[in-house]
Specification:
With 372 residues, the chain is of the alpha+beta class. It has 11 helices and 11 strands. 45% of the residues lie in helices and 18% in strands. It is elongated and about 95 Å long.
Protein backbone atom coordinates (compact mmCIF):
# COMPACT_ATOMS: atom_id res chain seq x y z
CA UNK A 1 0.00 0.00 0.00
CA UNK A 2 1.34 3.42 -0.90
CA UNK A 3 2.15 5.65 2.07
CA UNK A 4 -0.34 8.45 2.37
CA UNK A 5 -2.96 6.38 0.50
CA UNK A 6 -6.53 7.14 1.62
CA UNK A 7 -6.94 3.55 2.72
CA UNK A 8 -3.71 3.46 4.72
CA UNK A 9 -5.62 4.04 7.96
CA UNK A 10 -8.20 1.29 7.31
CA UNK A 11 -8.03 -2.28 5.89
CA UNK A 12 -8.70 -2.32 2.15
CA UNK A 13 -11.17 -5.20 2.33
CA UNK A 14 -13.37 -3.17 4.69
CA UNK A 15 -13.55 -0.30 2.21
CA UNK A 16 -14.05 -2.70 -0.69
CA UNK A 17 -17.20 -3.99 0.98
CA UNK A 18 -18.87 -0.61 0.35
CA UNK A 19 -18.97 -0.70 -3.49
CA UNK A 20 -19.73 -4.44 -3.53
CA UNK A 21 -22.64 -3.91 -1.16
CA UNK A 22 -23.80 -1.06 -3.36
CA UNK A 23 -23.81 -3.33 -6.42
CA UNK A 24 -25.78 -6.04 -4.60
CA UNK A 25 -28.36 -3.60 -3.21
CA UNK A 26 -28.91 -1.78 -6.52
CA UNK A 27 -29.17 -5.07 -8.40
CA UNK A 28 -31.72 -6.61 -6.05
CA UNK A 29 -33.83 -3.48 -5.79
CA UNK A 30 -33.71 -2.90 -9.57
CA UNK A 31 -34.93 -6.45 -10.25
CA UNK A 32 -37.80 -6.09 -7.76
CA UNK A 33 -38.74 -2.54 -8.79
CA UNK A 34 -41.70 -1.77 -11.10
CA UNK A 35 -40.97 -1.77 -14.87
CA UNK A 36 -40.98 2.03 -14.98
CA UNK A 37 -38.20 2.30 -12.39
CA UNK A 38 -34.56 1.91 -13.52
CA UNK A 39 -31.79 2.00 -10.92
CA UNK A 40 -29.02 0.74 -13.19
CA UNK A 41 -27.34 4.19 -13.54
CA UNK A 42 -26.54 4.08 -9.81
CA UNK A 43 -24.15 1.16 -10.45
CA UNK A 44 -21.57 3.59 -11.83
CA UNK A 45 -21.03 4.79 -8.25
CA UNK A 46 -19.40 1.45 -7.36
CA UNK A 47 -16.23 1.78 -9.53
CA UNK A 48 -16.16 5.53 -8.83
CA UNK A 49 -16.04 4.92 -5.06
CA UNK A 50 -13.45 2.17 -5.52
CA UNK A 51 -11.17 4.48 -7.50
CA UNK A 52 -10.98 6.80 -4.49
CA UNK A 53 -9.07 4.27 -2.38
CA UNK A 54 -7.92 1.35 -4.55
CA UNK A 55 -5.64 0.82 -7.51
CA UNK A 56 -6.60 0.37 -11.17
CA UNK A 57 -6.85 -3.44 -11.02
CA UNK A 58 -9.32 -3.45 -8.15
CA UNK A 59 -11.27 -0.61 -9.74
CA UNK A 60 -11.47 -2.50 -13.03
CA UNK A 61 -12.69 -5.64 -11.24
CA UNK A 62 -15.43 -3.72 -9.44
CA UNK A 63 -16.37 -2.05 -12.72
CA UNK A 64 -16.60 -5.45 -14.42
CA UNK A 65 -18.75 -6.71 -11.54
CA UNK A 66 -21.05 -3.71 -11.95
CA UNK A 67 -21.34 -4.38 -15.71
CA UNK A 68 -22.15 -8.04 -15.00
CA UNK A 69 -24.81 -6.98 -12.49
CA UNK A 70 -26.33 -4.62 -15.04
CA UNK A 71 -26.42 -7.44 -17.59
CA UNK A 72 -28.18 -9.70 -15.10
CA UNK A 73 -30.77 -7.00 -14.40
CA UNK A 74 -31.33 -6.49 -18.14
CA UNK A 75 -31.76 -10.20 -18.78
CA UNK A 76 -34.17 -10.68 -15.87
CA UNK A 77 -36.33 -7.63 -16.57
CA UNK A 78 -36.44 -7.60 -20.38
CA UNK A 79 -33.47 -8.47 -22.56
CA UNK A 80 -29.80 -7.56 -22.68
CA UNK A 81 -30.36 -6.18 -26.20
CA UNK A 82 -33.16 -3.91 -24.99
CA UNK A 83 -32.33 -0.35 -26.11
CA UNK A 84 -32.57 1.17 -22.64
CA UNK A 85 -30.41 -1.49 -20.99
CA UNK A 86 -27.98 -1.47 -23.89
CA UNK A 87 -27.31 2.24 -23.38
CA UNK A 88 -26.96 1.69 -19.63
CA UNK A 89 -24.42 -1.06 -20.23
CA UNK A 90 -22.40 1.03 -22.70
CA UNK A 91 -22.41 4.00 -20.36
CA UNK A 92 -21.37 1.83 -17.42
CA UNK A 93 -18.50 0.29 -19.42
CA UNK A 94 -17.24 3.71 -20.52
CA UNK A 95 -17.47 5.20 -17.02
CA UNK A 96 -15.73 2.17 -15.50
CA UNK A 97 -12.88 2.55 -18.01
CA UNK A 98 -12.65 6.26 -17.20
CA UNK A 99 -12.44 5.84 -13.40
CA UNK A 100 -9.98 2.96 -13.85
CA UNK A 101 -7.66 5.27 -15.80
CA UNK A 102 -8.14 7.86 -13.06
CA UNK A 103 -7.13 5.30 -10.41
CA UNK A 104 -4.02 4.41 -12.43
CA UNK A 105 -3.08 8.08 -12.73
CA UNK A 106 -3.62 8.71 -9.02
CA UNK A 107 -1.58 5.67 -8.04
CA UNK A 108 1.29 6.84 -10.26
CA UNK A 109 1.21 10.29 -8.66
CA UNK A 110 1.23 8.73 -5.20
CA UNK A 111 4.34 6.73 -6.08
CA UNK A 112 6.00 9.92 -7.29
CA UNK A 113 4.97 11.69 -4.08
CA UNK A 114 6.45 8.87 -2.02
CA UNK A 115 9.73 9.22 -3.89
CA UNK A 116 9.73 12.99 -3.34
CA UNK A 117 9.16 12.49 0.36
CA UNK A 118 12.11 10.12 0.48
CA UNK A 119 14.27 12.71 -1.26
CA UNK A 120 13.06 15.41 1.15
CA UNK A 121 13.91 13.22 4.12
CA UNK A 122 17.37 12.54 2.72
CA UNK A 123 17.86 16.27 2.04
CA UNK A 124 16.89 17.09 5.59
CA UNK A 125 19.40 14.61 7.00
CA UNK A 126 22.16 16.06 4.83
CA UNK A 127 21.33 19.77 5.02
CA UNK A 128 19.83 20.14 8.49
CA UNK A 129 21.74 17.64 10.58
CA UNK A 130 20.35 16.96 14.05
CA UNK A 131 22.15 18.87 16.77
CA UNK A 132 23.91 16.77 19.44
CA UNK A 133 22.18 16.70 22.82
CA UNK A 134 25.48 17.41 24.54
CA UNK A 135 28.36 19.42 23.15
CA UNK A 136 31.11 20.51 25.49
CA UNK A 137 29.57 21.98 28.67
CA UNK A 138 26.29 22.66 26.85
CA UNK A 139 23.03 20.77 26.67
CA UNK A 140 21.13 21.47 23.42
CA UNK A 141 17.64 20.81 22.04
CA UNK A 142 16.22 21.83 18.68
CA UNK A 143 12.95 21.68 16.79
CA UNK A 144 12.06 22.39 13.16
CA UNK A 145 8.46 22.91 12.02
CA UNK A 146 7.81 23.19 8.28
CA UNK A 147 4.85 25.29 7.15
CA UNK A 148 4.01 22.99 4.23
CA UNK A 149 1.97 20.00 5.31
CA UNK A 150 4.22 17.37 3.70
CA UNK A 151 7.46 19.30 3.72
CA UNK A 152 10.52 18.19 5.70
CA UNK A 153 12.70 21.25 5.36
CA UNK A 154 12.46 24.83 4.17
CA UNK A 155 14.50 28.02 4.49
CA UNK A 156 15.10 28.00 8.25
CA UNK A 157 18.44 26.62 9.43
CA UNK A 158 20.59 25.94 12.45
CA UNK A 159 23.91 24.24 13.17
CA UNK A 160 26.54 23.86 15.88
CA UNK A 161 30.31 23.39 15.66
CA UNK A 162 33.07 22.82 18.19
CA UNK A 163 36.22 24.94 18.35
CA UNK A 164 39.30 24.72 20.53
CA UNK A 165 37.85 27.21 23.02
CA UNK A 166 34.13 26.48 22.89
CA UNK A 167 31.04 26.04 20.77
CA UNK A 168 29.64 28.09 17.91
CA UNK A 169 25.98 28.06 16.96
CA UNK A 170 24.13 29.65 14.05
CA UNK A 171 20.44 30.02 13.41
CA UNK A 172 19.07 31.66 10.29
CA UNK A 173 16.13 32.27 8.01
CA UNK A 174 16.41 32.46 4.23
CA UNK A 175 14.14 34.97 2.51
CA UNK A 176 11.76 33.12 0.21
CA UNK A 177 10.53 29.55 -0.04
CA UNK A 178 10.90 26.45 -2.16
CA UNK A 179 14.01 24.82 -3.54
CA UNK A 180 15.95 28.09 -3.82
CA UNK A 181 15.50 28.70 -0.09
CA UNK A 182 16.66 25.15 0.66
CA UNK A 183 19.67 25.68 -1.58
CA UNK A 184 20.61 28.93 0.18
CA UNK A 185 20.22 27.25 3.56
CA UNK A 186 22.49 24.42 2.43
CA UNK A 187 25.05 26.93 1.15
CA UNK A 188 25.22 28.83 4.44
CA UNK A 189 25.29 25.69 6.58
CA UNK A 190 28.08 24.20 4.48
CA UNK A 191 30.13 27.38 4.78
CA UNK A 192 29.54 27.54 8.54
CA UNK A 193 30.50 23.93 9.15
CA UNK A 194 33.61 24.30 7.03
CA UNK A 195 34.85 27.55 8.58
CA UNK A 196 33.50 27.65 12.16
CA UNK A 197 36.53 25.84 13.60
CA UNK A 198 39.05 27.66 11.37
CA UNK A 199 38.06 31.29 11.99
CA UNK A 200 39.48 32.31 15.37
CA UNK A 201 37.28 35.38 15.65
CA UNK A 202 33.47 35.38 15.39
CA UNK A 203 33.58 38.57 13.31
CA UNK A 204 35.88 36.88 10.81
CA UNK A 205 33.46 33.97 10.58
CA UNK A 206 30.54 36.30 9.84
CA UNK A 207 32.59 38.11 7.21
CA UNK A 208 33.38 34.76 5.61
CA UNK A 209 29.71 33.77 5.59
CA UNK A 210 28.75 37.14 4.12
CA UNK A 211 31.27 36.65 1.33
CA UNK A 212 29.91 33.17 0.62
CA UNK A 213 26.31 34.35 0.44
CA UNK A 214 27.11 37.47 -1.60
CA UNK A 215 29.23 35.56 -4.13
CA UNK A 216 26.39 33.10 -4.66
CA UNK A 217 23.88 35.90 -5.22
CA UNK A 218 26.24 37.54 -7.73
CA UNK A 219 26.92 34.31 -9.65
CA UNK A 220 27.36 35.38 -13.31
CA UNK A 221 26.51 31.86 -14.49
CA UNK A 222 22.96 32.10 -13.12
CA UNK A 223 20.16 32.66 -15.65
CA UNK A 224 19.14 36.27 -16.15
CA UNK A 225 15.64 35.83 -14.72
CA UNK A 226 17.01 33.97 -11.73
CA UNK A 227 19.61 36.72 -11.13
CA UNK A 228 16.89 39.37 -11.09
CA UNK A 229 14.84 37.37 -8.58
CA UNK A 230 17.92 36.70 -6.45
CA UNK A 231 18.76 40.39 -6.26
CA UNK A 232 16.46 40.74 -3.27
CA UNK A 233 17.58 37.51 -1.57
CA UNK A 234 19.19 37.59 1.86
CA UNK A 235 19.55 35.52 5.03
CA UNK A 236 18.91 36.73 8.55
CA UNK A 237 21.18 35.02 11.04
CA UNK A 238 22.32 35.07 14.66
CA UNK A 239 25.71 33.59 15.53
CA UNK A 240 26.86 32.71 19.03
CA UNK A 241 30.28 31.84 20.35
CA UNK A 242 30.07 30.19 23.78
CA UNK A 243 33.43 29.65 25.52
CA UNK A 244 33.85 26.53 27.62
CA UNK A 245 35.65 28.24 30.52
CA UNK A 246 33.87 31.60 30.77
CA UNK A 247 30.28 32.22 31.94
CA UNK A 248 29.40 34.31 28.91
CA UNK A 249 28.45 34.18 25.25
CA UNK A 250 29.42 36.35 22.29
CA UNK A 251 26.70 37.30 19.82
CA UNK A 252 26.51 38.84 16.36
CA UNK A 253 23.00 39.44 15.09
CA UNK A 254 22.51 39.91 11.35
CA UNK A 255 18.92 41.13 11.12
CA UNK A 256 17.57 38.17 13.10
CA UNK A 257 15.08 38.18 16.00
CA UNK A 258 17.06 38.60 19.25
CA UNK A 259 17.57 35.43 21.32
CA UNK A 260 15.93 35.03 24.70
CA UNK A 261 17.83 34.34 27.92
CA UNK A 262 16.11 32.46 30.72
CA UNK A 263 17.80 32.88 34.09
CA UNK A 264 16.23 31.80 37.38
CA UNK A 265 12.70 32.17 36.05
CA UNK A 266 13.32 35.58 34.46
CA UNK A 267 13.31 36.13 30.68
CA UNK A 268 15.27 38.85 28.89
CA UNK A 269 16.16 39.70 25.31
CA UNK A 270 19.76 39.46 24.13
CA UNK A 271 19.64 42.64 22.07
CA UNK A 272 22.92 43.82 20.58
CA UNK A 273 23.64 47.54 20.50
CA UNK A 274 24.82 47.47 16.90
CA UNK A 275 22.89 44.86 14.87
CA UNK A 276 24.28 43.99 11.45
CA UNK A 277 22.17 43.76 8.29
CA UNK A 278 21.19 40.34 6.98
CA UNK A 279 23.81 38.29 5.15
CA UNK A 280 23.80 39.26 1.50
CA UNK A 281 23.08 42.93 2.28
CA UNK A 282 26.13 44.06 4.29
CA UNK A 283 27.79 45.43 1.14
CA UNK A 284 25.01 48.02 0.92
CA UNK A 285 25.25 49.14 4.54
CA UNK A 286 28.33 50.23 6.43
CA UNK A 287 28.30 48.23 9.63
CA UNK A 288 30.40 46.97 12.48
CA UNK A 289 30.48 43.19 12.79
CA UNK A 290 31.99 43.17 16.26
CA UNK A 291 30.61 40.57 18.64
CA UNK A 292 28.92 41.70 21.86
CA UNK A 293 29.28 39.78 25.11
CA UNK A 294 26.45 38.70 27.45
CA UNK A 295 26.59 36.84 30.75
CA UNK A 296 25.70 33.16 30.30
CA UNK A 297 25.95 31.52 33.67
CA UNK A 298 25.57 27.93 34.75
CA UNK A 299 21.92 26.92 34.60
CA UNK A 300 21.02 29.67 32.10
CA UNK A 301 19.13 28.74 28.94
CA UNK A 302 19.50 30.71 25.71
CA UNK A 303 16.65 30.31 23.22
CA UNK A 304 17.27 31.05 19.54
CA UNK A 305 14.32 31.06 17.13
CA UNK A 306 13.22 32.22 13.70
CA UNK A 307 10.52 34.76 12.89
CA UNK A 308 8.15 31.94 11.96
CA UNK A 309 7.69 31.47 15.73
CA UNK A 310 6.95 35.03 16.85
CA UNK A 311 4.97 35.87 13.69
CA UNK A 312 2.68 32.85 14.00
CA UNK A 313 -0.92 34.06 14.32
CA UNK A 314 -4.00 32.50 15.81
CA UNK A 315 -7.48 32.77 14.27
CA UNK A 316 -7.86 36.26 15.79
CA UNK A 317 -4.63 37.47 14.18
CA UNK A 318 -2.70 37.61 17.46
CA UNK A 319 1.03 36.90 17.26
CA UNK A 320 2.49 34.11 19.35
CA UNK A 321 3.83 35.69 22.60
CA UNK A 322 7.02 33.65 22.83
CA UNK A 323 8.69 35.58 25.68
CA UNK A 324 5.54 35.40 27.80
CA UNK A 325 5.11 31.68 27.20
CA UNK A 326 8.74 31.01 28.08
CA UNK A 327 8.36 32.99 31.31
CA UNK A 328 5.14 31.13 32.14
CA UNK A 329 6.94 27.81 31.70
CA UNK A 330 10.07 28.65 33.66
CA UNK A 331 9.59 25.55 35.78
CA UNK A 332 9.71 23.37 32.65
CA UNK A 333 12.84 25.15 31.50
CA UNK A 334 14.52 24.20 34.76
CA UNK A 335 14.08 20.58 33.69
CA UNK A 336 16.19 21.31 30.64
CA UNK A 337 15.98 22.53 27.05
CA UNK A 338 14.20 19.38 25.84
CA UNK A 339 11.25 19.93 28.18
CA UNK A 340 11.11 23.62 27.27
CA UNK A 341 11.01 23.03 23.51
CA UNK A 342 8.55 20.16 23.84
CA UNK A 343 6.13 22.49 25.59
CA UNK A 344 6.73 25.42 23.22
CA UNK A 345 6.18 23.22 20.18
CA UNK A 346 2.86 21.93 21.50
CA UNK A 347 1.79 25.39 22.63
CA UNK A 348 2.74 27.02 19.32
CA UNK A 349 0.79 24.50 17.26
CA UNK A 350 -2.20 24.94 19.58
CA UNK A 351 -1.94 28.72 19.09
CA UNK A 352 -2.08 28.50 15.28
CA UNK A 353 -4.68 25.76 15.16
CA UNK A 354 -2.31 23.10 13.88
CA UNK A 355 -1.08 24.85 10.73
CA UNK A 356 1.83 27.31 10.55
CA UNK A 357 1.96 30.08 7.97
CA UNK A 358 5.78 30.00 7.80
CA UNK A 359 8.59 27.63 8.70
CA UNK A 360 9.67 27.83 12.33
CA UNK A 361 12.79 26.68 14.15
CA UNK A 362 13.96 26.88 17.76
CA UNK A 363 17.22 25.96 19.49
CA UNK A 364 17.57 25.92 23.28
CA UNK A 365 21.04 25.89 24.86
CA UNK A 366 21.73 25.31 28.56
CA UNK A 367 25.11 25.80 30.20
CA UNK A 368 25.67 22.85 32.50
CA UNK A 369 27.43 23.24 35.84
CA UNK A 370 31.02 22.12 36.06
CA UNK A 371 31.44 18.56 37.32
CA UNK A 372 32.40 18.54 40.99
Amino acid sequence: MVPGHPSSGQPRHVLLAVPIALIVIVTVVDILAPPSVHLGPFLVAAPAVTASFAGPRTTACVGALAVLAQAVVAEVRTSIVDLNHSFQLITLILMSAFVTSFAARRERHERELTQLRSVATAAQEVVLKPLPQRIGPLRIASVYLAAETEAEIGGDLYAAARTEQGTRIVIGDVRGKGLEAVGDAALLLGAFRGAAHRQADLSALVNFLEGTVSSDLDDPAAPKDATEDRGEAFITAALMDIPDDEPMLHLINCGHPPPLLLRRGQVSLLEVRHPAPPLGLTEFVETDLSAEAFAFEYGDIALLYTDGVIEARNKDGTFYPLAERVADEADKAIKGPDALLAHLRKDLMRHVGGQLGDDAAMVAIERMPRPS
